[in-house]
Amino acid sequence: MEIEFKGRDIYLDKELTLYDKLALNFSDVLKKHDVNHVYVSGYVALIFGRSRTSEDIDMLVERMSIGEFQTLWNSLYSTGFYCHNTPDCKTAYNVYLDKKIAIRFSEVGRVIPNVEFKWASNEQHIRALGNNLEVHIPGGSIAISSLETQIAFKLLLGSEKDIEDARYLFELFGEHLNQKALIDELAYLEISLEDAKKKLGWQYEP
Amino acid sequence: MNREEIEQDIKRNRAQRLEFVTWYAQWVKRTPNKVWSRQQREMVDSVLEAANKKRLEELAAE
Fold first, then answer.
1. ipTM of the assembly?
2. Are residues B61 and B47 in the same domain?
3. Do residue B23 and residue B37 come from a single domain?
């Protein structure tokens, strides 16, 4: 893998999957409206080559007013996206997002893959939003949560698939990871270092 | 097969999957982007296209 790290920017030349194209196109609309957002969870492993599939890619978005959301909604629809949950913007905002329920968007004519869109609504989400990396791929760039945050969060989620995603990122980026940041993230999520070492195959000795 | 054997089987399967993920990450690391990303795109996109087609057919039949 030829990859370049420059501070908070990562440069990766790759053939784009349908996930990458969806993430880029969706992000473009959000960027036009200065909406603070970040992709999290499985997509962080998928963008770097993990060979598995998922119906969706997860995104955290900074909460906005109903007026701002209406503008974004109109722009998404005029760009060729639609919401699976409801065709009504106010319902999406009041009945779903503000009740901490995610909504899903796809490109017209598709159901899979889709973007799972939700407010950053807790401290962990806010950390993910504020601690992001910009991945530059052909066609644009995508904001993702930091690798250390994602590895720790995946261990917390704990399903087989999540642990495999964490192991994949750990194995792929071992020398680029900030071990102190990873330890801090594990401590923040109250994950024991011993458990993390075992699941990640991590030879760390303090 | 008793419950204990099934549990051992599941444990063994998990360990093997993790071993594969480790092997695959190492392979991606030492493989040119052009090669691994083409393979990833072909695999991912074919699964997604098939899943999307099936879901659209299901929705049309509802």
1. 0.91
2. yes
3. no
